[in-house]
Every structure is written in structure tokens, then in C-alpha cells.
Hints:
By secondary structure, the protein is mainly β. The protein has no helices and 11 strands. It has strands spanning 4-7, 10-13, 18-24, 30-36, 43-48, 54-56, 64-69, 74-79, 88-95, 102-104, 108-113.
Amino acid sequence: QGQLVESGGGLVQAGQSLNLSCAAHGVFDVMGWYRQAPGEQRELVAEKSYYGRTTYGDSVQGRFTISRDIRKHTVFLQMENLKIEDTAVYFCHARQFSSTNPYWGQGTQVTVSA
């Protein structure tokens, strides 16, 4: 079964950038990122299918960029112009072909300070 390994979380100041990566041990259709702040629902950040279809959450559109290296089974999230409200645990997400059951990474903390 597929496994997701995240890296790249950390502490940054507002307006700065941070990059996340997630390596999958398996082939997936959709790969992407969700985030969740304490007491809040988990929300979509961005996702990209194997064939390049891309979706962004409204709150990150224009600031975050998702990309994939298909051959390396890796998805990246480039986060620019970070805001305090971007502070959350970011979870890698993946779904296999012909499946609705998601895989989740362990989560990586992104904290944006003033």
C-alpha cells in the first residue's frame, strides 16, 4: 500500500516563503495538500491529478503552487507571501486510481509569525 512522507514544515515570518514536499511509496491518481488549524475543519489547499488537473483552495489561490514529479512519486507545495492565517498542520493527501479512499501523511507544522 502507498505511504506518504512529508518534509519542509517550519516557522517563517509573514510575507516569506516555504516549500513542502511529499514522497509517495506507490502510484497515485490525485496527490495534494490539506491543512487544519486547531478547532477548525480540515480544508483543501491544493491537489493535482496524475494527468495534471489542478485545484486550489480559494484562500491560497495566487500564492501557492502545487507541482508533481510523476516519476519520483513526489508532490511539492511552493508557498509564497505567507500570512498568519496560513498557520496550520499541513497534511499530504493522495488517492489511488479507481478509489475514493484517501491516504494521509503524518502532517507537518507550518507556523507564520508576524
